[in-house]
Specification:
The chain is of the alpha+beta class. 21% of the residues lie in helices and 32% in strands. The strands form eight sheets. Strands 10-11-12-16-15-14-13 form a seven-stranded antiparallel sheet, sandwiched between helices. The chain has a six-stranded antiparallel β-barrel with strand order 20-21-24-23-22-33. The chain has a six-stranded antiparallel barrel with strand order 26-27-28-31-30-29. A hairpin with a 4-residue loop joins strand 29 (493-496) and strand 30.
């Protein structure tokens, strides 16, 4: 045989391949490609998705491909179930190593040169070789590994033909499902899938993954090799212990490769930290064992899934964040990622971080933040809290000190007060004692609150003076102070110098008015006590106005003050 080679400029729709074999892993596929390449030209290998790797000949024009298919099958050098395939089904090329021929046009097919002196009659067109016989199909089916048999059942289940268990056993149920699938797709009904039929089922099964650019990616810094959707995400940076792969297309997706040295305590710490991240919504599965964890978070816009394991002092895994409403593709993608995950020697070093630092970031990822935070204060030893109603409007949930869930027991919108009860009993350091003594004008008052909405991690004290025992409009249940406060202080207790609670600091709602700096208002203790009565409660009182040491006053005030946060979820 004399082989002639040349590049031909043809339209994209003319470029086809002769698909000759598929293998369920890269090692076997590479070995088989090497065997074919020893005897045949134009041998190429491509990832097919779903953990399968195909070996093909080409690229050819369709007419050349039909000739190659006909001649090579007749000569027995390629399997009888070989077929013509389009390049759109191929992904990353693995053979020859380093080659990329998908977009390089076609080559001339190998042709037989015959002596001119021996003319021969033009042979009649040969029909395409038939599919496998029943016996051949049975023989090739017996070569399937247990995992390949299970995968075949998975694909039949996906196609809606198999309702049984995934056990790799081809009993009556599996045979019946094969018959159903054959009938639906116009094949002879035998209950035994041929090699070509299995390939067709695989193509249909993987069609949902088309356009994702699934390819095996090796990240030597993270020490991880796995299949990633390379048309959707691309590497951006390392931020210990994460390798960030961010969205680069229309699909808003994120992949994190997780890699660090550590032990079980490190693993458990990572488990806790991951749940504070914005990319891990609160609703979803939380599973942790001694050496692994799974986190699934879901909200209206996205689903996040994290899988991490501890082996030989290395913590490795990944997170996939994918848009909600695309569950079939997401679940298939994460299965491919998980199945292909390989641990390499390296881990991301702690030094692999950018210079970006912020209190609301962890390793370059945003911490989940509340929509609004204000102050409140404890009124009994069980942890019941009074706060401003401003902080609970249209919240998905309310927390005390960012950890304890709280339910709204009562809201008095007229007074602007809410009563909260914790999901579990708390043990406050101090509780409010409402003063029974009328304060004197120009006397010293103080408020305790989370001025910076929790950023500092503890309440702070602000001091001022009592300016009037009524509001600007003469309101009897409001008093005015000369005090410099911030929005986060609203809802905090206002105390006299003896530690008695005079009222609750109100938010600045004087819209449309330009008041002098330092003018603040508080709701009087009598109004607060009336709200508690509505909730079926009574708070402690005190008739002492004797000033106490400022240190003791600060301890009393901050001990009863709690951060109240409103979350969207």
């Amino acid at each position: 045989m004399v082989f002639a080679w040349c590049l031909a400029a043809v339209a994209q729709d003319e470029v086809v391949w002769v698909q000759i074999e598929a293998q369920p892993n890269l090692t076997d596929a590479t070995d088989r490609a090497r065997v074919y390449a020893a005897d045949l030209p134009d041998v190429n290998g491509f990832s097919l998705g779903g953990g399968w790797y195909g070996i093909s000949l080409g690229p050819y024009t369709r007419s050349d491909a039909e000739q190659v298919l006909r001649v090579y099958r007749a000569e027995g050098v390629i399997p009888p179930d070989s077929y013509i395939a389009l390049g759109s089904t191929f992904r990353q090329q693995f053979w020859p190593v380093g080659a990329n021929v998908l977009d390089r046009g076609v080559v001339d097919a190998p042709v037989v040169s015959v002596p001119e002196a021996t003319p021969v009659a033009e042979p009649a067109p040969q029909p395409a070789a038939p599919d496998e016989t029943r016996a051949e199909a049975q023989r090739n089916e017996r070569l399937l590994t247990p995992s390949e048999r299970e995968q075949l059942q998975v694909m039949l289940k996906w196609a809606g033909a198999y309702p049984g268990a995934i056990d790799g056993a081809f009993g009556r149920g599996t045979r019946a499902s094969m018959s159903v699938w054959q009938e639906r797709n116009g094949f002879e009904v035998t209950g035994i899938l041929t090699t070509a039929q299995r390939a067709a089922l695989l193509r249909d099964y993987n069609a949902v993954l088309n356009g994702l650019g699934l390819a095996l990616v090796r990240d030597d810094t993270a020490g991880i090799e796995m299949v990633l959707p390379t048309d959707i995400v691309a590497f951006e940076k390392y931020e210990y212990p994460f390798a960030h792969y961010v969205s680069q297309g229309e699909i808003e997706a994120t992949v994190l490769l997780i890699s660090q040295a550590g032990d079980q305590s490190t693993l458990f710490g990572l488990y806790d930290i991951m749940q504070t991240l914005d990319i891990v919504p609160l609703d979803g599965v939380r599973e942790r064992s001694d050496s692994s964890f799974v986190l699934v978070g879901e909200d209206a816009t996205r689903i996040s899934e994290t899988r991490v394991t501890l082996e030989d002092g290395q913590i490795k895994g990944f997170t996939l964040v994918w848009p909600a409403g695309d569950e079939e593709r997401r679940s298939r993608l994460i299965a491919e990622m998980d199945r292909s995950f390989e641990r390499l020697a390296a881990v991301i070093p702690p030094s692999a971080s950018s210079q970006e630092q912020a209190i609301d970031l962890v390793s370059g990822l945003e911490i989940r933040k509340p929509r609004l935070s204000r102050s409140g204060f404890f009124v009994d030893r069980r942890g019941t809290v009074l706060t401003t109603s401003e902080v609970i409007g249209s919240c998905g949930r309310v927390t005390l000190d960012s950890e304890t869930e709280a339910e709204v027991a009562l809201v008095d919108e007229t007074r602007g007060v809410a009563v909260l009860k914790p999901s579990r009993e708390l043990a406050p350091l101090a509780v409010a004692r409402f003063s029974d003594v009328t304060p004197r004008l120009q006397s010293e008052v103080a408020t305790s609150g989370y001025s910076f909405e929790g950023v500092l991690g503890a309440p702070s004290m602000t001091f001022g003076t009592l300016s009037d025992v009524r509001g600007l409009g003469g309101e009897p249940d409001v008093f005015r102070m000369d005090m410099g406060t911030l929005p986060g202080d609203a809802g905090g207790p206002v105390l006299d110098s003896g530690g008695g609670v005079l009222g609750m600091l109100l938010p600045d709602t004087q819209s449309g008015r330009a008041l002098p700096q330092g003018v603040q208002f508080a709701l009087d203790r009598t109004a607060l006590q009336a709200v508690l009565e509505q909730a079926g409660m009574a708070a402690a009182g005190t008739d002492s106005a004797t000033p106490i040491d400022p240190i003791d006053l600060t301890g009393e005030a901050t001990g009863m003050t709690v951060l109240v946060s409103c979350w969207d979820q």
